[in-house]
Amino acid sequence: MSTVWRVADVVDARLETPTARTIRLRIPGLHGHLAGQHVDVRLTAPDGYQAVRSYSIASASGAGLPEDELELTVEELADGEVSPYLVRGLQVGEQLEVRGPVGGWFVWRTGDEGPVQLIAGGSGVVPLMSMARAHHAAASAAPFRLLYSLRTPAAGYYREELSALAADPGAPLRVDYTYTREAPAGWPTAPARLTAATLADLVLPAQVAPTFYLCGSTPFVEAVSGWLIDAGHDPARVRTERYGGIGGAG
Fold it and tell me: Which domains does the chain have, with CATH numbers?
């Protein structure tokens, strides 16, 4: 983990949704990262005011990018200080101050062979996507599943890539979706909030002792983690991450 602020070059950027953007950074001195880590981003205004926010890394080391590059996916918050600039204003060729990668507990390592259940609420899929990409790049035999809860189909990140990962027999990823406000045409169930019963139907059972990586808003994470423990899952295997990180959201 690096605690030093470094200047990163913005080498690419693309929209994931109308309000979310993936930004690729080249960071001098970076030598890879662990799936699930995050970096801190610092912006400095002309008057010296600084804002720091934490953003999960979406990319995976060994999955196509040079070791000194990584990608962040940032969701724009209407009242945010940092995210509107990163999504709407930042240009390829500009620079950002970054610190990290940070984190050693909410991470998946390629040597881990046990079954894994990823659970994402909205933009909480970002660090879990890093894990899914790392799992695929390593051709890992560890059983991997993702439950992705979305308000609407249009809010989903990485849809085409998730479909491709699920179809690859080399290191398959099972992906299940739930929708809370609007479902795709022909979806077998009406949109509804995730419940304990639905969760139990869509995640690996306690008998196989999966490790859970759960990321989303605080209410989502608290509800889902409670349901998992009530269903008999080992609390020590339920790892959680909430929006915001050490620098707050926005």
Answer: 6-102 (2.40.30.10), 116-242 (3.40.50.80)
